[in-house]
Amino acid sequence: MVTSGDAWVPRKHGRPRPRPEPLATLGYLARHYFHQDYDLEASDPAGVVRVFAQEAGDEAVGSLRREVVQLLAEARDEDELEHVWRTRFGASYEPRRHDGLSYREWFEVVVAVLDGRHRDGPWPPRGLGGDGRRPGHRRPDERPRAHGEVRR
């Protein structure tokens, strides 16, 4: 269980828990699991989320899921999602740079892992495109396809 100051702390002596800061469980995941050596925790980023879920317990998993779903619903754009993950919480994992995933796709993977819908398998996950992107998405440095042109 996490110590006081983090999102979910055990009740002690019948006293209520402190009010958590917004996105506190997501911040805990970013800081304590996606540190500079996060790749030593598991074989891929989804595996790191699974390690968190196993170690943290049901309450933390539920809290993280609610926070990520809320963040996805309220975020205006990719820049805001990146700001929360990288700048505000200091996560070392950069989904776009490391795996070609948008931050929205990354957070959708987090929810899928927490829901048990993403198991061990190919990384980046299939269904986002063969190279980790949704069909039709392109990287900023990639030229648009001409009508009928097939991506190689």
How is this structure best described in words?
The N and C termini lie far apart (about 50 Å). The N terminus and C terminus are likely disordered. With about 150 residues, the chain is an all-alpha fold. It has a domain of about 90 residues. Helix 1 crosses helix 3, helix 2 packs across helix 6 and helix 3 packs antiparallel against helix 6. The radius of gyration is 17 Å and the shape is globular. The protein contains six helices and no strands.
Mean pLDDT over the full residue set: 78
Secondary structure tally, helices: 6
Classification by helices and strands: mainly alpha
Helix content: 40-55%
What portion of residues belong to β-strands?
Answer: under 5%
- Write down the Rg: 17 Å
Uncertain residue ranges: 1-10, 129-152
End-to-end Cα distance, whole Å, is 48 Å
Number of strands: 0
Order of helices and strands: HHHHHH
Assign an overall shape: globular
Major sheet summary line: none
Provide a quick synopsis of the model:
With 152 residues, the protein is mainly α. 45% of the residues lie in helices and 0% in strands. The longest helix is centred in the middle third of the chain and has 17 residues, at 58-74.
Give the SSE map:
Blueprint: H1 24-33, H2 45-56, H3 58-74, H4 78-88, H5 95-99, H6 103-115
List descriptors.
single chain, 152 residues, mainly alpha, disordered N terminus, disordered C terminus
